[in-house]
Amino acid sequence: MTAASATSTPVAPAPKQHPLATRPFRNWWIGNTVSLLGDQFYLVALPWLVLQLTGSSLVLGTVMMVAAIPRAALMLVGGAATDRLSARYVLICTTTVRMFLVGVVTLLVWLHVIKLWHLYLLTFAFGVADAFALPAGPALVPTLVEPSQFQPANALLAGSTVMTGMVGPAPAGLIIKFWGIASALFFDTLSFLAAIAALIAVPEPPKIPHPSGTRPSMLHSIAEGLRSVRSDSALLFLMVIFAMLNVCLAGPVAIGLAALAKFRFGSAAAFGTLLSCFSGGMLGGMALGGMVKKPRHRGLQFIGLGIVCGLELVGIGAYPKFSVVAALLALMGLGAGFVNVQFTTWLQLRVERAMLGRIMSVLMFAAIGLVPISYAISGVVAQWSLMWLFVGAGAILVVTSAAATSAKAARELD
Fold first, then answer.
1. Which domains does the chain have, with CATH numbers?
2. Which of 129, 190, 203, 379 is the most buried (most CB within 10 A)?
3. Nearest of 297, 300, 307, 165 to residue 249 by alpha carbon
4. Rounded-to-integer distance, Cα 287 and Cα 285, Å
5. 42 within 8 A of 102, measured Cβ to Cβ
6. In 263-352, which ranges are continuous DSSP H helix?
7. Which residues of the chain have pLDDT under 50?
8. Under 8 Å CB-to-CB from 127, ≥6 apart: which residues?
9. Nearest to 385 by CA among 309, 293, 326, 317
10. pLDDT tens for residues 332-385?
11. At how many degrees (to 10) do helices 169-179 and 23-54 cross?
């Protein structure tokens, strides 16, 4: 073989490494998965504990609202803190705080001295921690893997969220039924240790200097994130759609399903099973969404998800049979899972890493900013009529989603 022919021979590209082959990401994925499984026990135990103490959907709505208010109010601060410090550091701090809080409530329940005001304090503190943890989670991924690995990495993390949401609630309901609420909360307390250990093993990423050479104030950092979103019509449209979906879904799902399971089906196991059906649908939707190599018309996909979810909420209110509710929740999860990985990857590729925490915080703020209102309204309406809670929220979601199809930004979000 001549030198000329040797140089002209194409070199095969190196195979793309799977994210799990990267040790820091693998450690985080395993620890986060264990912690997420524990969270499912908390998500079943808390509503059940409130309903057991008070028997009131209205009180449950106010407890959930207390968590949502600081979460929304401090979300932009959490995104700026993530960019100023690091996603790893923020997550270590918030996970440790959460473990301590759940541990204290576990002890109070076990000693039979738990009071409603204890739960208000717990959920408020959780809301503060969530405001920092929610934007930090997606911002951690680009520090662990290469851009070509973003989509499979996001799929793994989202898949863990859905898988634990599918397999966790039903066993949590059974544990509450046979061994009590304290046992479920104790499992959640222990699960935080896995996430903390994984984060400690993750190396601290290098600091990215600000273009101006000096670190701006916290308020200036927040303003930068808001200006970045405002100047991008596709991003701004995404924020509006997130807000619309969550104000119509958050309250009916968190308040309505718990009340439906308590007062119609009479079992914590039924509540856990319904949540598992939703998560199972999401897992299937993510599998379908991952098969689309070059997704198109993301904006219209998201609007379509809103219309379908609205119709499914109407169906839950009109036909509150256990099998019907379970099937509709599975279909709702299927649509949500289909678009989940695509949008997370789209944002991570579109936004500079130095701004990612702030952009994610704006997105999270749009998603949950109106959730306290949703919880409060849902608690009031559920106390009056569970049927109209689901039917009314579903009808509003269908109408507003259908109206959004005419927006130019929906076609630009591709």
1. 21-203+217-412 (1.20.1250.20)
2. 379
3. 307
4. 5
5. yes
6. 268-290, 298-318, 322-350
7. 1-15
8. 66, 67, 68, 69, 70, 71, 74
9. 317
10. 888 777 766 667 666 766 767 666 667 777 777 766 666 777 777 888 888 888
11. 50
